[in-house]
Amino acid sequence: MTELSFNNVELNVISRDNQIWFTSVELSKALGYKDSKSVHRIYSRYSDEFTEGMTLVVNLTPSGQKPDPAFNTRIFSLRGAHLIAMFSRTPVAKDFRRWVLDVLDKETGQSQPLTLDDGQKKAIREIVGSKAKSSGESHRSIYISLHHHFSVKEYGDILQSDFDEAMTFLEELELKPALPAPENKLPFQTTRIMLLMENGKVTDSSVIPDNAWIVAPDRFTSILEYPGAFNLQEMTEIAQCAQRRAIELAKCLPRLN
């Protein structure tokens, strides 16, 4: 093992295939966790986002001893450590992400800074989707604002070192609330049609006048009690008609008996 230093914290690292790897214990220490299992819990929660090149389990049995499964340890590459730090919410997580990228640049000898990785792209897509849903703005217009801010053609071209700035930009991006749907100014007309059906087939139809009532006999009295349903003249005519029919029915009663 060799050592690296982050924020005056000495970290033991593993050299594997000419790459730097960290154990969960060392990452927990670097990120400021008191519980050494904190990183393992983060990994368990988001394990589907890690590739084989980001993490693997190795046996760290001390040299000269028989391999012991008790020494099986999960380790993380620089990219894996960076992804762990993305899910971390400790005060030093942001600085640690930048530090990891610096170490990665030196290790790979890349002259060009790295662009967003898959985990960062996913985080960008999620916050864009959330902003679009809450504001009613289109995804495309939000992405255009992001592209203009960083002078890139697409969000995948944003540098990993600018990821935190991109997230902050999207979180603070002010969008106009969605405008209400315009009111229908055209005249609204309805037409009521009565259909006569026999054996499931329409045999006749007629338009029902707007001032017509279609009422079952047992509901007619409730319509009479409804304020404004009929004017005085109409109520008088209804009363007279009802009186005449009552007299006619009364005359028929002896015959029925």
TrEMBL record:
Residues 1-112 form the Bro-N domain. Pfam families: Bro-N, ORF6C. InterPro entries: BRO_N_domain (IPR003497), ORF6C_dom (IPR018878). Coiled coil: none annotated. PROSITE patterns: BRO_N. This is Bro-N domain-containing protein.
